[in-house]
Design the sequence.
């Protein structure tokens, strides 16, 4: 298992799932989850982000008793996948899996440059 600064991928993915659960519970009066959860991966299938997200989705589905799908949206240096999540309904059922390399996206660089 890959470790960096004492944090394993399993613990990190568990933290993501827990964060989702708490945020989604605060939103609704209905039982959570009440529909399919979609995790958008802004990269091609088969990469390390895709594989780790699919492992997380499988565990989430088993634990929550609801389908969790992984939706790969590669292209545009991750912008296409990010845009799908940005334009989706803000109900907590569409999540974005990403890596720290997303912070170097051209769109974010242009925003930072324009605000300086």
Sequence:
């Amino acid at each position: 298992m890959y470790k960096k600064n004492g944090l394993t991928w399993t613990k990190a993915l568990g933290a993501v799932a827990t964060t989702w659960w708490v945020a989604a519970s605060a939103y609704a009066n209905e039982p959570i989850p009440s529909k399919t959860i979609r995790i958008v991966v802004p990269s091609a299938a088969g990469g390390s982000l895709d594989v780790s997200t699919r492992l997380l989705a499988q565990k989430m589905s088993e634990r929550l008793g609801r389908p969790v799908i992984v939706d790969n949206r590669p292209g545009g240096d991750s912008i296409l996948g990010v845009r799908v999540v940005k334009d989706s309904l803000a109900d907590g059922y569409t999540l974005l899996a990403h890596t720290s390399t997303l912070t170097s996206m051209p769109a974010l660089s242009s925003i930072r440059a324009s605000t300086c």
Observations:
- The chain has a mean pLDDT of 76.
- Residues 9-27 form the longest helix (19 residues).
- The radius of gyration is 15 Å.
- Strands lie at 3-4, 7-8, 37-41, 68-72, 94-96.
